[in-house]
Every structure is written in C-alpha cells, then in structure tokens.
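Q: Predict the bound structure with zinc ion.
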Amino acid sequence: MAQTAAEMPREFPKDASASVVAQHAATLKALPFSDVRDFDDAARGFLGTIENAKITSPQGRVVWSLEPYGFLSQAEAPATVNPSLWRQSRLNMNHGLFEVVPGVYQVRGLDIANMTLIEGDSGVIVVDTLTSIEGARAAMELYMKHRGSRPVAAVIFTHTHTDHWGGARGVLDDAALAGGEVPIIAPNFFMEHAVSENIIAGPAMLRRAQYQFGPFLSKGVRGQVDCGLGKSMAAGAVALLRPSDLIIATGDKRVIDGVEFEFQMAPNSEAPAEMHFYVPRYKLLNLAENCTHNFHNLLPFRGADVRDALAWSKYLNEALKMWSGKAEAMCGQHHWPVWGRDRVDTMIRQQRDLYKFAHDQTVRLMNHGLTAAEIAETIRLPQSLDAAWHARGYYGHIRHNVKAIYQKYLGWYDANPVNLDPLPPVQAGIKYVEYMGGSEAILARARKDFAKGEFRFVAQALSHLVFAEPDNSAARAMLADTFEQLGYAAESSTWRNAYLFGAQELRQGMPKAPPRPPIPRETLAALRTEQLWDVLGVRLNGPKAEGKHVVLNWSFTDTGETFVLRLENSALTYTEGMQAEVADASFSLARATLDEVLAKQTTFPDAIAAGRIEVDGDPARLAELMALMDEFPRMFEIVEPKRILPS
Ligand SMILES: [Zn+2]
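A: Predicted complex:
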C-alpha cells in the first residue's frame, strides 16, 4: 500500500485549520518575538561557508545539505508551522565557520552538532567530530581554508552520542592514528556508553527515531522543518575511535598544546558519560549539550534510559560555582554561543532552574497524587523561564519531560488498577467501537469535534477505530488529518515530526526500506564479550526454545576470557571465568571471530570449517542454539495494527 510522493493524492498535506491559525496568532502575541539577539549571536563571527552547507561522499552521495530548507528564508511563519518553531528553524539555518573569540572557532550547520576548534601554541584542539567522516573532513577543510593549515593537537569527545564522535576519522587520518601521538580525550566510561546505549534495543529505537527526526518526511512548510537541536540527522560513514585519555574527576586539568583545560564531569545528564570544560586562556566555557538553546529531552521519543533532571540541574549549578564571573563566552556543541559575563551567567542560571523546576514541580504534583498525564496538563513554566527563548521545548518539551521525571521515580504504572492489565490496542479498539455505536457514529462525532479543533480527543477516538478497522479508509484519512493539525500546531520539532510522520504512514503506509543491516563489526569489536552475549540473548525466541537445554564452553585465545553459555528455561545465561565440567561442546577461538559471526561476515560452521574455531564435543548443539535466534525487522507498524505479530 506504500505510495511514492508523486503518486500521493494532490490534496495532501492539507491546509492549517482555523483553530491552528488562531493558536499561532496567540503565540505570536505571547512570546517576545521582538527580541532578536539570538539572530545576531547565531551569525556573529561568521568567516565563511560551503554553499548550502552541501557535503557529498566520495561516491557522490549527499550526506548533508541545507538546500532543501531554502523555504526557511521567509521571515514570517506559514500557517502550517508554529511560529516559535519557525523561529528556531531559521536560527538553525546559520552555517559555516564562526569565530567564538580569537583563537576559538566553531563549524555550525554542517551537521546537527557543532565542531569546536581551539587553537594551541602550534596546532588545533578539535572538540567533537560531527556525525560523519565526510562531514568532519569538510569541517576541517573549511577551518583550514580560513585559519591556515594546523596539525591536530588533540581530539576531545564531550559525550557519547554519535553526532559528537562519528566523524573522528575525518579529523585524524591514518598517519595521525599510526603515530598515536594525538591524544583522544573523553569522559570516564566513554566506550562503555558510546556503544551500549543503542545496541540492545537498537532495532526498536531506530524505527522509533524515524518518528522523532522525520527523515522520511519531505522537507517543507507542511513537512519536516527542523529537529530543534539542528536541522536533521546526517548521513555518511561513522567510525568510533577509542579514547587514549579519560577524564575521571571534576577539577581534572590537562595542558594541551600549551592550552590549559579544566574539566567538570556531568554523568547521567544529557548522556550517560558527558563532561564540561573551561579554557582560562580564552575565558571560554563549553557546557557540551547540557546548556543549549532549547529545553532538551529527559527522554527522547526514540527511547533511551531516562535522564536525571536533578543531576543535570546540579551540574549547571556547579559550573556556575566553578566559573561564573570568569567565562566571557560560552559555547555548546549544538546551537550558537553566548557572550558577556552577565549573559553567560543568566543563561546558565535559567537552564539550571528549568531542569530544577521541571524536576521539583513534577515530584511535588506526583506526591499530591497526580499521574503523569495529569501533571503534564497542570504544569506551567514560570513566566521568567517561559519567556526565555532557550528554555522553550523545541526538542524536549515540558509536557513530555514531566512524564520522564514521573517514570524515573514511579515507572509506567499510574497505580490505577484499570491500567494494570488493559486490553491491548486491537482488542480494546474493537470494544470501544462497539460501545461507541460503530464506525459511522464515531466518524460523525469526530467530524464535529475536528471542526471545533478538539484534535487531541479526536485522535484518541479515531485511533481506536483504526486499530479495530485498519482498512477503514475514512477513519485512516481522518486520523491522518487530525495528526496533521496537531503537527502544525506543535512548538516541539519532535512532536511535529511524530504527528506528521504518523499522518504520512496512515495515508501512504510505511516507507519501503531495505532489510536491517547487521550491527557493524567495528561496533561489535568495541563491546565487551558479556555485551555480545547480551545482544545474542535478546534474539533468543523463547517459545521456540521451550524444553531445550544446551551448555557450551567458550575460551577466547586472545583475551584469555572463558565463559559457560547455558540455555535452559528458555533463557540464555552466561558465567564468566568458568568452564562447565559437563558441556555439549567446547569452543576455542579469537574474540574477533565471534564479532565476525555476529556481524554476519561469517557463520559458526564456516569458521569451524576454516579451522578458526577449535571444537571439542558436538558442534551441532551450537547450530541448534543459533537456529533459535530471531531476526528483527527494520520497519514495524506503529499507528495501526501489526500486520505480522511475532510469536
Ligand atoms: Zn548532540
């Protein structure tokens, strides 16, 4: 049922409804649009750029381009985009090389994230390396073009998210890596978290990320306009480099190429391993991704470990304690810098209080007995924060961040037993439709409420109908129209992307995507062996494994590790540092061989046949175990019933 854009009926996407237009008019009155300092700051220090920020791979594939966003040159927001989000989307159009202070530069708008370049006595220290190797290479060329050729004195990774390290190989070439003299500095536990956050739940997370970022939406006033933090996800090649120097404690210092850096640890804030730093020579503070020009996510829609709002706020307070009154410029690894001691101070204080307010007021209301949905409906930022542009929810949003805080303390259950064991969407949908008098009765009521702008409930009611009758085209169309209006109204880019992509999938079906590629071998190589067993464990099909009992000994010739891998009770468990006395088979191999098998570059039987795995016992038991492993689909239904339900 998937259609291409060209086949899509002309009437889509639709116009904004009168109620959305009225809401935008109110937003224009309520927010301080006459304050344009952000536009000055985002353009300040501009030195030059690449036309349209267009970056192509050696094979000619476009990995990044702002050309499709040319429609954002229009100052006035169209009716189909929230004016506050339109403003942020325009700010994120600034691209090129910018001077932060003499000696410190940033490449912005060539990726969702920034690269910060700090000049030392003879070289340059590169802070974060963008998402892709192609992007990082283009950023370095742009920097050298304007600042001259300088050797890379060090690379610093501020935290574990891919948009901050994926392009490292575009900064450090083979020669630089072979010499091993360029330090790669990162926060403690960087490797553990850089690869682990998305691995176990990767297949589900990647599909959900399509709803968060909107890569399959067309770009335009009725489509994707921004991601809040920047324009979009970058494509291109990614490779992880192992840090050579870990920062362990707040107050740790390094002198790199003659420049002193003072570090502050901020674990479990925006990322599980993250750090801030201050450079006295330049009076420059860098708060990584914890003090950006939007309310960040405490739990992104793609799914993640919930973040600690209280700790986040405390780190910002600690940064004030350490460096307030010293820093004359503050930059982050997204968005634009802020200059002047007072403005730096004000922004950090407001961001500190934003996370503290959200945390404390959520917990207060929670302790009064309100549930997550009730808290989201009740909570309002104080006027002083609500009117601060950088506190607005372009990426995270107060209305979903409070649910993350609730989840952190109390979990998914709201304590009302009605929600303890509810019918799942299809069965519930069928009963709702029956109780509500059938599909025609629902559609008639929904049409009236749609005209009144009651989109939130219309979406809820129609979703029941779509889950009961997924082939009811009138229901699908009307739910799509409803999602679309919710998307046009949303201030948060992630809400907009989610609603508009939901509408698109109801109208056109899921985009066609090639099968999910295996986990890259380099990524597997970066995981600890226990993590590989964990990756395997979540693929075990429990029902198929019913009644099976397999015990396998593993011995890794290069790492010296030994494991017993045991399947019983439909659960795959492992014990390190042991060999079972009674095992079905024992295997001796290099760790890299296991990486290759899991990356689907070889199979256990082939590696055994090639003499790369020594076997004692019955190798057929391993084949039996591997036959119980599921393959995960790349795409699965979200706004409608699953066509194929796994067993
Ligand atoms: Zn980032």
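A: Residues 113, 161, 163-164, 289, 334 surround zinc ion (CB under 6 Å).
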